[in-house]
Amino acid sequence: MKGTKGQSDHLNLLCDIGDLTDLLVSSLSVDNFLQRAVEMVARYLNADVCSIYLYDEPSGELYLAATTGLNPEAVGKVRMKIGEGIVGHCFQNLRPVCEGKAVLNPHFKRFEEAGEDRFKSFMVVPIHRGAVRIGAIVVEHERPDVFEEAEIMALRAASSQLASSIENARLLMEVKREEGAAPAEHPPAIKSPLKAEIASEGIAYGPVTVFRRSSPASLIESSPEDASLTLEDFRRAVDVTAEQLQSLQSQFAKRLPESASLIFTTHFMMLKDESFVGRMAALIEQGTNPLHAVSQVSGHYTALFLANPHEYVREKANDVEDLTLRILRNLKRPGSAGAGFGSKRIVIASQLYPSDILKLVANDTQGVILVGGGATAHISILSRSLHIPLLMASQHELLSIPEDTPVLMDGYMGNIYIRPSQRVIKGFKTRENTRLAAIRRDKPISPVTRTSDGEEVGLLANINLLSEIPLAKELKAQGVGLYRTEFPFLIRSTFPSETEQYLVYKRLFDEMKNHTVTVRTLDVGGEKVLAYLDTPPEANPELGMRSIRFSLDRRDVFETQIRAILRAAHGSRDARIMFPMISSVDEFLEARRIVLDCMKGLKKEHLPYNSAISIGMMVELPSIGEIIDSLSEVSDFFAIGTNDFIQYMLAADRTNQRVARYYAAHHPAVLRGLYRVVEAARGRNREVSICGEMAHEISHLPFLLGIGIRSFSVDPQFLPALQEAVSKISIPDAVEYAKLLLSKSSLRDTLALMEDGAWKKRFGRI
Question: What's this model's pTM, rounded to 2 decimal places?
Answer without folding.
Answer: 0.65
